[in-house]
UniProtKB/TrEMBL annotation:
It catalyses: L-methionyl-[protein] + [thioredoxin]-disulfide + H2O = L-methionyl-(S)-S-oxide-[protein] + [thioredoxin]-dithiol; [thioredoxin]-disulfide + L-methionine + H2O = L-methionine (S)-S-oxide + [thioredoxin]-dithiol. This is Peptide methionine sulfoxide reductase MsrA. Residues 50-205 form the Peptide methionine sulphoxide reductase MsrA domain. It comes from Kineosporia mesophila. The active site is at C56. Belongs to the MsrA Met sulfoxide reductase family.
C-alpha cells in the first residue's frame, strides 16, 4: 500500500521519508506573475512572512495574492523531511510536507488578524489529512508562524473559530500549528505551480470553506483584553 490510503492518512516517519537532493532540481521565477514582486526577496523593510497550508496550494495562493497589503506569495513544500522535493514526491505523501503558501505582507496595510480570518474561512480546518476529495498528508491544514505575535494570534483566532465551528456542528480543528523554524525550510515549488491559477484561469480551484464566519472583531484580540475593531 505504498500509494494507498494508509500512507495518505498516516504521517511518514523521518527515517522512511524520501531523502530528496542537495540542490533544487528545477528553476523558480524571480518575479511574481501577478504582483511583479520578488518571489524569494528581498522585500521592503518591515515586511513580515507567514507560511500556511489549506489543501491544494493553487487556490490558496490566489486567495492571498488578491489580498490588499500582501507583498508577494509563492507556493512550496514545508513541514516534512525531504530536501528539495518535487511535486510528484510531495503528492506521494512520502516527504511529510504540506502544500504550503508563503505570504509576505505589509502589516501597515493588512493586519495579521485579517490574514488569519481569511485563512480560517477559506478551507475546512477540521478534516485532518484531506480537503474534500483531496486525500493525503500533504493536504493537511497548517500555520507556521515566524514570531511570537503570530503564534499568539494563531492560537487566539483558533479558539475563537473553534467556538463558532462548535455551534455549527463541526468537529475539532486539526490545523498543525508550529514555528516556521520547527517546520523547516520552505522549499519553493516548480515554475508552473507558481501563480498557477493566473496562468491557468480555468484550473482546479475547489472551495472547501465551511461557510462558517470567523467572528474576529466580536471577541478579544490576541487574548490581550482589547476589543478588535
Amino acid at each position: 500500500m505504498i500509494f494507498g490510503s494508509r500512507l495518505k492518512s498516516t504521517m511518514v516517519e523521518r527515517d522512511k521519508a524520501l531523502p530528496g537532493r542537495e540542490s533544487r532540481p528545477f528553476t523558480v521565477p524571480t518575479a511574481h506573475a501577478v504582483l511583479g514582486t520578488p518571489l524569494e526577496g528581498p522585500w521592503p523593510e518591515g515586511t513580515q512572512v507567514v507560511y500556511l497550508a489549506m489543501g491544494c496550494f493553487w487556490g490558496a495562493e490566489k486567495t492571498f495574492w488578491q489580498t490588499p497589503g500582501v507583498v508577494t506569495t509563492a507556493v512550496g513544500y514545508q513541514g516534512g523531511y525531504t530536501k528539495n522535493p518535487t511535486y510528484e514526491e510531495t503528492c506521494s505523501s512520502q516527504t511529510g510536507h504540506t502544500e504550503a503558501v508563503l505570504v509576505a505582507f505589509d502589516p501597515a496595510k493588512v493586519s495579521l488578524t485579517d490574514l488569519l480570518k481569511t485563512f480560517w474561512e477559506s478551507h475546512d480546518p477540521t478534516q485532518g489529512f484531506r480537503q474534500g476529495n483531496d486525500l493525503g498528508t500533504q493536504y493537511r491544514s497548517a500555520f507556521y508562524w515566524t514570531s511570537d505575535e503570530q503564534r499568539e494570534a494563531f492560537e487566539s483566532t483558533r479558539a475563537t473559530y473553534q467556538a463558532a465551528l462548535d455551534k455549527a456542528g463541526f468537529g475539532a480543528i486539526t490545523t498543525e500549528g508550529r514555528s516556521a523554524q520547527d517546520a523547516g525550510t520552505f522549499w519553493y515549488a516548480e515554475d508552473y505551480h507558481q501563480q498557477y491559477l493566473y496562468k491557468n484561469p480555468n484550473g482546479y480551484c475547489p472551495d472547501h470553506g465551511t461557510g462558517v464566519a470567523c467572528p474576529i472583531g466580536v471577541g478579544v484580540l490576541y487574548g490581550t483584553g482589547v476589543k478588535a475593531d
